Amino acid sequence: MRYYCIGIKGSGMATLACLLHDLGNEVSGYDDIKEWKFTEEGLNDRKIEIYTEGNFIPSKDTIVTSSKAFSENHKEIERMKKLGLELTAYNEILGNLTSQFQTISIAGTHGKTTTSSLISHILNSTYGCNYFIGDGTGYAKKENDYFVIESDEFNRHFLAYHPTYSIITNIELEHTECYRDIEDIIEAFEKFAINTKKGLIVCGDNENIRKIKFNKKVIYYGLNEENDITAKNIKLTKEGSNFDVYMKENLYGHFEVPLFGKHMILNTLACIAICDKLGVSKEKIHDLLTTFKNAKRRFAEEVIDDIVIIDDYAHHPTEIKVTLEAARQKYPEKELVVLFKPNTYSRTAAFPKEFANALNMADKAYLTEIDCNREKKSDYPGISSKIILDKLENGEMIGEDSINKLGKHKNAVVCFMSCASIAHLKEEYEHLLKQK
User: Fold this and answer.
1) Are residues 82 and 171 in the same domain?
2) If we measure between CA atoms, which residue out of 90, 100, 88 comes closest to residue 162?
3) Which residue from 178, 201, 283, 403 has the highest number of Cβ atoms inside 10 Å of its Cβ?
4) Radius of gyration of the chain (CA)
């Protein structure tokens, strides 16, 4: 089959394109972004053609799909319609893939990417598995039984999936542009749970997850005693995190992971729970966890002289908070600096105080203007980065023409955070450091 993916440089669409290619399909795509993006690595490895001029003429049997970041009246989508081609929803194509394998869906407001990466790392090294990870990483082989998929709740995408097992890492208010309130989000997750065929593994520490009425067998994990699987005797060090895992009241084993922050222990517990359920030995799980390398743009580090640069996808207040906590854990002696690019006007409008509280954990916070390609600024009058800036204890604005402000920080950890494109700012700063 032939597929044409509009918005192919988006993290989800890039991953889907890689999977479709691996399963023997002919894949190409379009994107407005001409400059290189980290999601292109897998596309380039597979020699998937990327068009940016809108001059590709697909054959009549081509299945066209598009990213939700592209409006229905986008010029490339309109061009496809004029050529007589119908669009198939991105999540519908993914849903079809989930029905072809024993699918493990990882859902939740936060932690989906790391948890999916952990599970696919272990299953791919033992049984072999297909995986869809939201950092642009995907792989598939027809002969594999298992399919690990990061399952996004945005626009209720995950309700099109057909998982064998599901994991829910947490539930918080998010995507306020497409959910009415937290109860609306909980209801969507409950429907997701109902769609699961065999069983669920969920974080019992999260009060919103506890509100769900599950109709399948559920395993609860967390740090609190009332869970089925718990982590105890936790030690957070500069090298990572150490803890004991208990199943019910029985010691399962001691684990060490090269990850930072208690949120990463929770992600690891979810991974241990599903891998144990699928029959992977605890010895194998232990050994493979020690070799884990996190996903792209998840606490990705680079060191230049006395500066540690961390690139992270964090774009919600909770994600910013736990990432800054992790940076403190690993580098307690260094100044902590954060550069944050808010994404979407709706999210900024919903959480100005929460963003400020999280950013105030750093010694210094820099903000750019909001970067959003799926919302119109005119629909959100009065909403800008200033509503966060006004609540910061030590914050200021920054942009491409003022990146040299970062030059004054010595012996520091500088965290670049956003789900929007922030690579050019990071590269400018790296260039500034190397010049010195």
Assistant:
1) no
2) 100
3) 201
4) 22
- With CA atoms as reference, report the closest residue to 175 among 193, 188, 190: 188
Nearest to 219, CA basis, from 248, 187, 250: 248
**What is the sign of the dihedral through the CA atoms of 256, 260, 261 and 267?**
negative
**Rounded to whole angstroms, how far apart are CA atoms 159 and 81?**
26
Q: What is the pLDDT of residues 344-403, one digit of tens each?
A: 899 899 889 999 999 999 999 999 999 887 778 888 999 999 999 999 999 999 988 899
pTM exceeds 0.85 for this model: no
What are the CA-CA distances from residue 159 to residues 92, 143, 190, 201 (Å)?
9, 26, 10, 17
Does residue 73 sit in the same domain as residue 149?
no
Burial of 110 (0-12, 13-18, 19+ CB in 10 A): buried
Q: What is the CATH number of the domain that holds 38?
A: 3.40.50.720
Contacts of 382 by beta carbon, 8 Å cutoff, 6+ apart: none
